[in-house]
Amino acid sequence: MAEDESFSPAIHGLEFPSRALCARLAETDEIHFLAATQSVTSENQIHLLTYNDENSELDKYIYAHPAGEVWDIKSSPFKKDIISSVYSRIEGGKQRFFASLWTLPDEQATLTEGLSDADDSRGVSPRNRKSSVNTAVTKLCNIEGLEGRVSVVCWDPKEGSNAIICIDESTVKLYKLDNDISQLISCNTIPTEEKKHINVNAVFNPHLGLIDCITSGEAVTGLDFRVSKPVFSISRPHSLTTRDVDFNPNKPYHIATGGDDCQVKFWDIRQLTNPLITRKDHTHWVWGVQYNPNHDQLVISCSSDSNVALSRLTSIASDPIPILDEDFQDTPAKPPQPDELIMTYDVHEDSVYKIQWSSANSWVFASLSYDGRLAINHVPHSETLKILL
């Protein structure tokens, strides 16, 4: 990794293999990430990490997830103590998949309980401590009606929607939740053309109603639950499997996809003949791609080459041309920054399955590799200055 003079990554090790990571979306004051383990033989865990980017302190709260090995974890956009998980366990000699909503224990109480009497006698602060695994998450409800392999749960980020999407082996289901976000009250199902979903991910469109975008094997499909049918489809965005998709948060109709051809592609869904841009910043499968939530010229991607790539894509950003100050109308505008790879982060030693921007600080992001290493990194200070000044 090219050195950034202002930042060193924060590293946390989960005890078991892991592939589930998310930001705590309802927490906008502090930097919080959630990660979950995937162990077949041991009790699984959910790790809540609270990161202070001013002094690099990292608090770790560890909760038991006894229901099974976790494949996907998401947080409610509106209530920070509510999460969803997709998990599996062996029943009758077969692997069965489930999805549930859970509530997290109070982290401060959990951390205090994790301090020993010796710690108390020495006056050790709960800050920068690691809690013991002495509290389990509490189940609110199961997500019923799912069949076969369950891939992902996706929360609608629009205020007041109280909706989640679940994808099982052959359908996409939209569930409405009660006002407390603790019970399911309705379900709408759209069958899909593919008989069996493989390597599925999903994301809500932040711009257009209930349009949900999913990846499934070779295709990327946009579904509109208001009419219960697909509204667009890219039959083969990548020459091999498509692993991930994300909507540009600031520019309607624009999406990014990542796939097993080692490429990240950017599309306008109104014109799908060719991608707007194709980048190849990885040497193996791309498992994740995500726009920065505020500065859409910044895009992160992760791969089983064990690297995370941070790219700048000014040419297709929502505001690519600098705006002149009114006092300097005669000053020629500087050309926009070129599209390029800003930095490759090589702090992992195994396949990196998940990446996630912070919901509290748009310059901070986390990445998770299968060996359980979670890294919290930062956009280089020199790049933030180019955007802000």
UniProtKB/TrEMBL annotation:
Pfam family, one: WD40
Keywords: Repeat, WD repeat
Domain EIPR1-like beta-propeller: 10-310
Alphabetized InterPro entries for the sequence: Beta-prop_EIPR1-like (IPR059104), EIPR1 (IPR040323), WD40/YVTN_repeat-like_dom_sf (IPR015943), WD40_repeat_CS (IPR019775), WD40_repeat_dom_sf (IPR036322), WD40_rpt (IPR001680)
Biological process terms in GO annotation: protein ubiquitination
WD repeat ranges, renumbered to this chain: 235-270
SUPFAM superfamilies in alphabetical order: WD40 repeat-like
Family as reported in the entry's similarity comment: Belongs to the WD repeat EIPR1 family.
Protein name: Protein TSSC1
